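Exercise 3.2. Students should predict the tertiary structure of the chain below and write it as structure tokens, then compare their answer with the key that follows.

Predict this chain's 3D structure.
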Amino acid sequence: MSSALLKVDDLKVEFTTYGGIVAAVRGVSFEVHAGKTLAIVGESGCGKSVTVQSIMGLIPMPPGRITSGTAIMHGVDIIGRKEIDGRDIRGREIGMIFQDPMTSLNPTMSIGDQIAEPLLVHRGYSKKQAFDRAIELLDMTRIPEAAKRARQYPFEFSGGMLQRAMIAMAIACGPKILIADEPTTALDVTIQAQILDLLNDLRQETGMAIILITHDLGVVARMADEVAVMYAGQFVERGTVDDVFYRSSHPYTLGLRAAMPVNDRSAEHQLKPIEGSPPDLFHPPVGCGYCDRCPNAMKICEDQDPEVTVMSETHTARCWQHHVSAPSKVAGLYYRESNA
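Answer key:
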């Protein structure tokens, strides 16, 4: 595979709160490649958004603190410094679509002016050039009557149109990487499909990479090339989309799949919730974070953090049940179950 646009290694993030220190991200590593979509998937509170926001320098410090890790882009550790060649990477090299467009846009500025702003700051456009380009970007994101819409305000847009405006703003400067944080939250199914198709088309047209943050496995299956499953601040499984869906190797991944509805009336499928609660990250577990909820936990799972097992060239899992010394009937269970 070609060299990575962004390489993150051993990222750890903490927050100091009234109740103590929260270990929000606990040693995350990943790579992002041009023209590919990496999906980071997991339940709410597992550390997905904090991971990307810390790389972008968007977490408040204090109370946040990056205690270790690097994020290398163009040979520069962007955690240590937020500039490349004297210019801020945010907006220029990495764009971001935030979770809620209703609160991410300025209600006192027109949509066109907000899309034009990154072009004024990062590209040195004149006001007219920037506004004309904003109209082109709105048209590119398939908003009808783009010239008229560019002069309107956020309250005049529907939820789907606001999300498109956010996408237009994020891609204004032609970033190499686009971070999409829950881009389809609170949208109806038809609009969700349109937004996902739009992101895919933009990726193919521009060659940019996408980091997709989501808890929706349906979105992951539709969009992702690679998947990182996150739980309690760690990646517990990583691989291609086929690896994660058809050769699931971690019990948490299997739990997520079992909780997915199946659109097949002939299939006898019963949704199985994952019992229990995530661990308290004020006091991170010594062993596996999923131990208390895992139906096949062993003694070692409580006492030692699992090693990362290489399942194949593209697939890894953080689980003791795949260790060479694990009981064969336990280690084999997940492959039989995932291939059933």
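Discussion points: The first strand starts at residue 6 and ends at 17. The CA atoms of residues 110 and 152 lie 5 Å apart.
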